[in-house]
Amino acid sequence: MQINCEKIRQFVVDNLVYDRACHFSNDDSFLEEGIVDSTGILELIHFLELEYGFTLADGDLTPENLDSVNRICAFVGRKLVEAHSQVA
Fold first, then answer.
1. Which one of 27, 72, 75, 87 has the minimum C-beta count within 10 Å?
2. Residue 62 lies in a domain
3. Is there a domain that residue 87 lies in?
């Protein structure tokens, strides 16, 4: 399932990157680059749950899923496929 990564990136830029240049790639680590702090991750989780209509489990809250725009896009795609297959 194709996810609009630009929408996710725009949320990060508009809501989580404070007083800094927004020059980061979609592969840059939020943690390593200091792009998003722990409070920002909570805001990001809330956005994803509202935007895509699923709830993140504790096991979903890993850097592998949430530490860059591209990782988030892949994760959201997997969650939506999973949710769709449970409905079918």
1. 87
2. yes
3. no
In a domain, 14, yes or no: yes
pTM: 0.89
Q: HEC string of 11-77?
A: HHHHHCCCCCCCCCCCCCCHHHHCCCCHHHHHHHHHHHHHHHCCCCCHHHCCHHHHCCHHHHHHHHH
Residues 6+ away with beta carbon under 8 Å from 71 = 63, 64, 65
- Distances in Å between the alpha carbon of 86 and those of 60, 69, 73, 75, 79? 18, 26, 20, 17, 11
Mean pLDDT (whole number) for 7-36: 87
CATH code, domain carrying 23: 1.10.1200.10
Domain count, the chain: 1
